[in-house]
Design brief:
Length: 626
Amino acid sequence: MILWREPGRGLGPRGFLTDDEKQNLPKVDAALLRRILSYLKPYWLQFLLVFVTILLSAVLGLMPSIITGRIVDEALVGKNMALLIRLLLMAFVTLTGSQVISVLESYINAWISQRIIFDMKNQMYEHLLHMPHAFFTSEKQGDIITRMNTDISGVSSVISGTLSSIVSNIATVVTTLVALFTMSWQLALIGIVVIPLLVLPTKTVGKTRWKLLTASQAKTDEMNQLINETLSVSGSLLVKLFAREKREYDRFVDVNEEVTQLSLKEQRSGRWFRVVMGMFTQLGPLLIYFAGGWFIISRADPALTVGTITATVALVNRLYRPVESLLNIHVDFTRSLALFTRIFDYFDMKTDIVSPENGQKPEVRDEDIVYDHVVFSYDKEKPLLTDVNFTVPGGKMYAIVGPSGSGKSTVVNLIPRLYDVLGGSVRIAGVDVRDFDLAYLRSCIGVVTQESYLFNGTIRENLLYAKEDATQEELDAACYIARLTDFIAAQPEGYETMVGNRGLKLSGGEKQRLSIARVILKDPKILILDEATSALDSITESAIQEALEALMEGRTSIVIAHRLSTILKADRILVVRDGVIAEQGTHEELLALGGTYRELYETQFRQILDQEGAAANGAKAEKGLV
């Protein structure tokens, strides 16, 4: 049985569709086929060359078998050594020519498939780059990578495998049948009769082996999951802390035993299958020898020769495998279409947040930010913001507070259009942000989020992401403001220090300061700080708070913070609750109201303030002891 691995899937037999594939059959129509062909069209000349080489290879592939017949009848029976040598050389030349042409065909095929993959990956990556932020928060990262890499790479197997295999098999079958019936139609029919005996067992045994493989794969996945959970950093720590080494080892042994037994069953069934298939494969030639012998001995066909029988046997053996493949053509075809369908599903996802044609680029420095009856929801059945109204005057710093899950981050995410409002509008300098040139809008806004994200590169590379042409003096200045200078100076490689995947080689405070330095380098006109100092200890936060204040000076700023020290410096405080701005005012005004803000102050801010005060007193006491 021939096994086939669908991109991103488990093993599947080529002879039939799995239950999951049957339930998710792609809708085949002219539009889908035209769309697939649109990727092949730029390379039609190369495809034509491939088809020509396949045909030539098929024709030349016949010659060694036909020449073998002449060797028997003319050279051996006629005892002609010179002819024998010539025929052997002819067979060698045709065989070599067929192989060379096959290599050429394979090379052209690989070139075509890789160019198509190149085109599709470029198109997919560009499409995904412009997908809205909501797409990445709802879609699994593994699915995105599978579509981008595994599925598109699977197109190679469709082009160089399925498509060329179909053409090659058809060419081989047609040319072989023509040759067989030309030499002896009686022997050709006898050779063809054996074909069903090869196909039926393949399908029957294939289903049995597929069930065993499916069960084995499921258990293997279970074992891999166990390994991943218990041998990861966090998992192994949990195992040790709860002293569960013996329990996890016993679980692993049990699952491993099941995997081993299933693998043995599958291998045993495969061995017997190969024995049976070997018997049936030899049955055709035996029948041909028997029938041919009877025709010669009984003189039923005086024109039949030993060489013809020998050539027929060789050609029949050449016929079996391509016929089997062509009988399963609907499976390969369906799987190929399913692959393209999955890729097209991503291409067809709408990019709702796009830059308008002739988008506006107004000056936004010191201009008001206005939220006018803003409505927003991630889930239509669960509205988050129902009627948000407020104005941040140009050059002022406003703080947003509220209970967890009230939508504070969502409010600020509407400014750079990470999401679009469902009702109302957000305006800067009197212009709806949806009417801005999108790239210009985002270039004017600097954001420091609660979770700092760094690329797996050097400190310099992460800083230059904000400004590619920044000078060393500008880098030094930004790092000085973010209090990173001493840290970088302490590193042997300085700015060339690798930060690791997602910045894992840095502490939380170091990552956050690097993110702040990156925004400083961007020099935005509007600043958004979403829990920007959450990863910093009180001493570090105090050290860079002045830097942030200097950065916010002259800039319109919105700060989401849980620390009272940050909130107190705001020109105005906005309290988000139940989808609206429930309260707004100064710290003293909001405390006097005795509402949501006072509740937050009593439950969160005062507790944090007390902790900070205790930590500061402890530090002073420690210094006194020293």
